[in-house]
Each structure stands twice: as structure tokens, then as C-alpha cells.
Amino acid sequence: MPKLKESLINSVRPDIRNISVNRIRQFDTEFRQIDGLLRLTLGEPDFNAPELVKKAMIASIENNDSHYSTARGSIDFRQAVVHFLKRNYDLDYDPESEILTTVGSTEAIFATLSTILKAGDELLAPSPAYPLYEQLAHVNHAKMIYIPTNDTDFVLTAKRLQESIEAHPNARAIVLTYPNNPTGVEYSGEQLKALADVLAKTDLLVISDEIYSTLNYIGKHVSIASFLPEQTVVLNGVSKSHAMTGDRIGFVAAPKELISQIVKIHQFAITAVSNPAMVGATVAFNDGDAVTEQMRAEYQKRRDFLIPEFKKLGFGVAAPDGAFYLFLKIPEGQNQDDSAFAIELAHKALVGLIPGSCFGPGGEGYLRLSYAASDAKLREALKRLKNYLL
């Protein structure tokens, strides 16, 4: 096995060396080594991709669709995205100039932030938040600024947003994720309109991460882009909505002036996405609404079952109005060090949960549970936790 020449170790950028690995994945990897452990760790749908999607991908392969696509992705997929956004959220985009196909929403985040951030910039986000944003801010020599929401039911208020903007004149953009990972909190149209009124008075770019938009349990999902299209970048994809995490198809929707710049980073990083996966995602967006609704209904049933059960165990539960996570406040009398408590539960109760501190300030003292798991696994996990905690 080769070992890097010692004098070359410092050839890695210091800011890259200082970035930590994804702690969610780190805990999941460690928990995989524990025999018999039930992992409720990753945001990975337990459903398989829809049959109509698989058939379309197989046909694509058999038709030798193995050549380069354009950098922006096939026009068929981009048109499907436009119809999806109009049908579900009443958003209007041009498939030719305002949609970019990406390798999942992760690459959409990477390409967008790499395009807009520069040294000295600040990136705002309500906390707790998905950790990728902070690490990509560091990669681009920017600073992550978390806006606390623990005292407002994990919802960013217009007042708190205004205060944060005034305190951080170097802010370049704000990331909003809704439904939220890890809390599951969704924003109403009224709440988003209040935020948009504040943001409209600024030159902040709004990065609207809506990957869980179809998994909404309180009514029709509203995008902040419906109020603020001229300064919003919408990120989404088929990973959560159609159980296609491994196919890695996402998209960016934004004004053409911004898409024309984001596509440069995208093209230099990956050239183009996979054609068969893109064909499958096209079918998913065009014809997969019924399958998505079946999955959404099942997730909601699991959520409704789990919340009262965890309250019986003494956990506080954030109001999860979307996604497929419970953000659990550790009961009084238990170890409030969330990382230590997660490790304790993994080894002694054989249940794997993610520490809330993985999601930044405001996550301390919480655990994230993914209920993207079968009923049998969820019931067994509850049984194990009851036996250990009570």
C-alpha cells in the first residue's frame, strides 16, 4: 500500500485538512460494526425506485444511451423539472436557460456555493442545519453563520432574520431547508412571505433547499421562490421523492444569469450526468406522482405512530411537519452529551441514532431518528429503547 511522501503532506490545502469528515456518515460507519444494531441513522428511503423508473432506465441502457449528455442535462429532463415545479409549486422556469441538472442535490449545493462565495463572505443558515453547508462554506473561504431557532420551535422568524442580517454585513447568501433536516419542520406560506419581505430589501441570495418538498404532512408545500424568484436558487431532486438516492439526479432552478455561471463549476467538476439515471428521473417527475404520494402517506403513518411513543419514553419531539426525521430532545435524567448518549444507546440498546450536535449549534442535547425504515424495524427499535430506558 502506498504512503504519501512525507514532504508532500503539506501540499493539501490547509482549509481542506481542517475540514472534518461528515459526522453523520462517521457515526453510521461506526455503528455498522456493532452486531445486531438497528440503524435509524441515514436519510435513505427504505422503498425501492418505482417500477416505471426502473423500466425506463433499462430501456435507456438497451438503446445504447451511453454517450455524453449536454452539460445542462437532457432537454427532456429539464422540461420534466419545469412541469414538476409548475404542477406542484406554481413556479415558472425556462427549461432551456433556467434549469441545470446535477449529480444529486449535493452537487447542486456544491456548484451553487462554489459559484457565489468568495473569501471573507458569510453564509447564513437557521440552526440546526444539514452540516454540508458549513463545510462547503469553509471550502470556499467563507464563514458559516448560524441563526438560532431553538426558542422559536425551530422556525426562523422575520425578526430574527432581520437581526442576523444587520449583525452580518458580509453575508452573501442564506440557506433555507424546508422541510428541514434534521427537525422535520416545514414553513407555511405566511412564514415564508414574512422572510421574503425582509430578504427583498437586501442583495442576499436565497439558497432554497427543497429536497424534501414532496414529503409534506400539513398541506401544499410553498416555495420561497414564489415570493422572491429574482433572488432565489431552488435545489431539489428525485432522491427522497422517488427513492432514487443512488441514481444521483438533482437540479438547480434559478434566473438564467445565475445558471449560466453555476454551469461552469458543474461542467468542470462532472462534465455531465448519467443518461440512464436522467431518463429514469424524467419518468419519475412526469409520471411518478402517485408513487410519491404512497410513500408520503406511509411516512406520515410512521411519524404519527412514533411521536406519542417517544413522548412516553420522556423525549421531547420537534414538530415534524415534513421529511422523515424525528428530532428528539434527550430526556431529563439521561446523559445530555448527545454524542456520548448516542454511543451508549448503540452499544447497550442496539439502536443507532445520530447525535444532534452533528447539525451544528442548537442541536446539542438532541438525537435525530430517521423513520425511513420498515414498521418492523421501528417497532423493534422502540422495544429495545423501552427495555433500556425504563
Automatic annotation (TrEMBL):
Alphabetical list of InterPro entries matching this protein: Aminotransferase_I/II_large, AspAT/PAT-like, NHTrfase_class1_PyrdxlP-BS, PyrdxlP-dep_Trfase, PyrdxlP-dep_Trfase_major, PyrdxlP-dep_Trfase_small
Alphabetically ordered keywords of this record: Aminotransferase, Pyridoxal phosphate, Transferase
Keyword Transferase recorded: yes
Single annotated GO MF: transaminase activity
Domain Aminotransferase class I/classII large, chain residue ranges per copy: 37-385
Superkingdom of the source species: Bacteria
Pfam families xref list: Aminotran_1_2
Gene3D superfamilies assigned to the protein according to its UniProt record, in alphabetical order: Aspartate Aminotransferase, domain 1, Type I PLP-dependent aspartate aminotransferase-like (Major domain)
Cofactor list: pyridoxal 5'-phosphate
PROSITE patterns, per the entry: AA_TRANSFER_CLASS_1
EC number assigned by the record: 2.6.1.-
Enzyme superclass (EC): transferase
Single GO BP term: amino acid metabolic process
Protein family: Belongs to the class-I pyridoxal-phosphate-dependent aminotransferase family.
Protein name: Aminotransferase
Lineage: Bacteria, Bacillati, Bacillota, Bacilli, Lactobacillales
